[in-house]
Specification:
Number of helices: 22
Helix content: 55-70%
Structural class: mainly alpha
Strand order of the largest sheet: 1-2
Number of strands: 2
Order of helices and strands: HHHEHHHHHHHHHHHEHHHHHHHH
Largest sheet: 2 strands, antiparallel
Oligomer: single chain
Number of domains: 1
Radius of gyration: 21 Å
Shape: globular
Strand content: under 5%
Distance between the termini: 55 Å
Length: about 425
Amino acid sequence: MKALKALPMGMAAIQWVFFIFANTIVVPVSIGAAFDLSAEEVAMTLRSSLIFTGAACVLQGLWGHRYPLMEGHSGLMWGLLLNLSASAAALGMDLQTIGGGIATGMIASAVFMIIAGLFGLSALIQKVFTPMVMSVYLFLLSAQLIFIFFTGMLKLKPNGTLDIPVSLLSIGVVLLVTILKVKGKGSISNFSILIGIVVGWILYDLLFPGGAALSASSQSFDMFPLGTPNLEWGIILTTFTAGVLNLSNTIASIQAAARLYKEQPSESRYNRSFTLTGLYTAAGSFLGLVPYAPFTSTIGFLESTRILDRIPFLIGGGLFSLLGLIPVVGSFFATMPITIGNAVLFVAYLQLFGTALQSIQGTVFNSNTIFRVALPVLTGISLMTVDPIIFSQLPVYLQPLFSNGLIMGVLLSITLELAIKWERYDTPGLYEK
């Protein structure tokens, strides 16, 4: 009987490894490409990501929030790093300068998170991140990431024109993953992301031999690969603000997990999770990693597999860390084509938009209260689509902040929620069902 029980437990752990893998592997590769890191640096950064992600999952599961929630690279922070790297020319900075400012901002936000966790500030933070603010955050995060993935899956030639064969392959991968996700059943649907990566990667290598974006034969690594910490206050302020807003991931994930387990999470779970996230953020700044946060998308994985036991999750996290201890693994995965990774994640994060829609489900808006969601969301999207160069006349420390639509949209939402008592305007109107 014990052997029969151990077999499903082992299979569940392997399934967790695949799930964590599919949500991790593209992040360090895309950051390496965005910041022009060498192939060796990307390979070592990727290895660090594998080791760190597995360990982060285990520590959160054992001591932090104690739910089987994947702890991975934050979508908010990932989008921020890609956005800042793409804005280098408009900000008049080189990539190493931007990366150094990001490292300083990450360390500053890490200190805030650790203090929030150790001094039990979770209740106060939850009052700021109200359900409406969380809804705005999800809408803007999905928009920002989809913009990034769509652009990333369409390869451009040196002259700026579209590389049609590679771009068509990316579109084909998008269709494949979508069909597997919607039409597939059981494991096929659950692992559509992983299948898309494998199939797309193989086809890319067959159709475009020698055309992979990165390759690595040896691995050398320096601390702060994105840039040595500096005092570029605009980058620091923007990164710090995003780091604080990143706590919303923890709140949303723990609340969703608690509903799934039909329990009320204690404040200590939030505080312990904040502390760990702060420690991960600090360590990640030294290693050139995107800061971490619990993945709300894990709830969908738990609901589809119905394996709510923590033990397979903890085993899976440990196994995932072991992958990073093998040097050849980092070298191999560093060769993954960026266009394929972006195509797969384009589909994966479409579901985040669905989560945003669900977050406001049941809310009745009228011609007055619609401003609660429409103003910050549409303002944020507008800022995402304009050229950052238009903010060049602002003080240099404000330019990175005002050019980031996600951060400005969330800050506007927080301001509206704190300044206006919306229940006064909750009267029948145009948008009432």
